Amino acid sequence: MQTEPQTPPTAMITGVTGQDGCYLAAHLIKCGYRIVGTTRQISTSRLWGLEQLGICNKITLEALCLNSVEQIEKLIDDYKPAMIFHLAGQSSPRLSFNLPKETFESITGSTRRLLEAMQKATTPSRLFVAGSCEMFGSSHQQSVTCESRCHPSNPYAVAKELAFRTVRDFRDQHGLFACTGVLFNHESPLRPKHFVTQKIIAGACSIARGQQKDLHLGDLSIKRDWGWAPEYVVAMKKMLAREQPEDFLLATGTQTPLHEFVSKTFEAVGLSWQAYVFHDNEFVRSNDSCHPLASVKETTENLGWTATVQVTELIRNMIRAHQKNDKTAHSTS
């Protein structure tokens, strides 16, 4: 007697065209999931990351602004996703000062509406929400955990903290399977060009090729926990595969000063960074202090996930990708 082929489970990803959305979609496809991805608008320019990973034609795309509980509920009932990953939202702390209302709506508002839609939907789903270490601020002297005090210093960070608390409230009060992955910096070749890591990688490669004379940067003393984005999406899926929902910090647990990131990048292309990198006050952010150190013990022990790619390997990966894309662009031009 023949058995009917099983329908693959569905995963919904908001903000599927962003860095994390692309890598998460690719990971879930390998795991046998059908992917429904939402984006504010479906346009060729937004699909670059999915095309880079060769998965654009393997995803069902839906235009969704996340401003209506009813529309979100309908999408959930139409596709019946086992998992929902909420990765959409304004992603720049700097821009949030100029766009506070839009930042709150796209982060806190969209998270609440997703949770409300999940309550009303006929099909139960599990929800992962992308949080941010920005909510902790910079006053912590000790390593932080998910229980550490928050001291946000920009509208983006405030919005992320409120979304974090909203997820906990719906989980505790309404029994939803919802959790937040508090993300520390994580990089990849799919990072937008305005992020400092991409600026440094592109600048060093261009200088090495003789196409650029120098590189202007802001405060080189700031420290960040830089991880490898393709690893972090694995942790996102693991968080929704647990028996009980729980929040986790997603980080390497190691900080690197920006000047060291710069030094390692220029060293990787055979140059000494001091001859090419110049301080520029234009790129100094008054509130851009050091992030706290992440305690990753609970993530390792309870989630069973540990970041393995450290900053030197991360830089090499990004340089290789940049050089490959540059050769491809020149060969087709």
Describe this structure in words.
The chain is built from eleven helices and 13 strands. With 333 residues, the protein is an alpha/beta fold. It has two domains: 10-187 and 226-251, NAD(P)-binding Rossmann-like Domain (Rossmann fold, 3-Layer(aba) Sandwich), CATH 3.40.50; 196-223 and 255-291 and 311-328, UDP-galactose 4-epimerase, domain 1. The strands form four sheets. It has a seven-stranded parallel beta sheet with strand order 3-2-1-4-5-6-11, with helices on both faces. It has a two-stranded parallel sheet with strand order 7-10. Strands 8-13 form a two-stranded parallel ribbon. The protein starts with 9 loop residues before the first strand and ends with a helix.
Please give a handful of descriptors for the protein shown.
7-stranded parallel sheet, Rossmann fold, 333 residues, 15% strand, UDP-galactose 4-epimerase, domain 1, alpha/beta, single chain, two-stranded parallel ribbon, 11 helices
Question: Briefly, what is this?
Answer:
By secondary structure, the chain is an alpha/beta fold. The protein is 41% helix and 15% strand. The chain has helices at residues 19-30, 48-52, 69-79, 93-96, 100-120, 155-174, 196-208, 229-240, 258-268, 297-303, 311-332, and strands at residues 10-14, 34-39, 59-63, 83-86, 126-132, 178-183, 186-187, 215-217, 223-224, 227-228, 248-250, 256-257, 277-279.
Structural class: alpha/beta
Continuous helix count: 11
Backbone shape = globular
> Can you name the CATH architecture of the largest domain?
3-Layer(aba) Sandwich
Q: How many discrete structural domains?
A: 2
- H/E series, N to C? EHEHEHEHHEHEEHEEEHEEHEHH
Report how far the terminal alpha carbons are from each other: 57 Å
Mean pLDDT: 92
- Characterize the largest beta sheet: strand count, sense, and whether it forms a barrel: 7 strands, parallel
Helix content: 40-55%
CATH topology of the largest domain: Rossmann fold
Rg, alpha carbons: 20 Å
**How much strand content do the residues show?**
15-25%
Strand order of the largest sheet: 3-2-1-4-5-6-11
CATH superfamily placement of the largest domain:
NAD(P)-binding Rossmann-like Domain
Extract low-pLDDT stretches: none
How many distinct beta strands? 13
* CATH class type of the largest domain: Alpha Beta
